[in-house]
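Quick one: structure tokens for this chain, please?
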Amino acid sequence: MHRKKAFTLIELLVVIAIIALLLAILMPALQRVKEQAREQACRAHLKSIGLGIQMYLDDNDYLMPDFHTHTTPCNGHLWYGSRGQLLKASDDRSYWGVIYLEYVKEDKLFGCPSFNNFTQIVAQELLYTTGEIENSAYSMNGWLTKEKSVSIPRHSEVVVAHDHMEPRIENGNDMLYANSSGRNFDHYRSGGRTSWYRGIFRHSMKSSKDDATGGNLNCLWLDGHVTTIKETLGEDIPKRWYDPLDKN
């Protein structure tokens, strides 16, 4: 009778070591692939929002909606009230997406897979529950409020919305261009919202620093196209991307 040859302990340890080494090599690559998929989904969502905005403009004499910029505190992340009703845009709790939901159809399209990691921060600081705020992943350019889109030049160079933690952006502390300090996002880099900064340039992050991710954000432009913008201090970003009619 022949005895079956079994693996020795050393052979098993070698196999385990090889598997561990392969996993160590492959895991970063798999993480990159997963993040690339999240970034592509985010860009696709922004593209759908852009189509909805174009349809809204076609139906409303090319007039951008009232975002209540500088007039009321309508800068929330919420979609629905306590009875499940869609909030009005004038409600200070409402997310700007409620204006376009009739055209975009799905509130989930206002969500970004890479934003989900940051919703707990928003919930804790603003006393929200999580859930629907996962579908409030983009900022809207508040300076476009009640502007006629046909009066705005160079639509491909006008920001409508992009990745952010704050829903409505209406001043230099919130926007990509450098403010009077010579850099952007002062309020997020060293001010009262440093915990929010990593949720802005949140794609393909390469650094663990609080004020530098090495990542990208996705941006929707007025003509409907979507691009990626690498993390920047803002010196290369003109203010006119947000304020094309120089009113602010």
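The mean pLDDT is 91.
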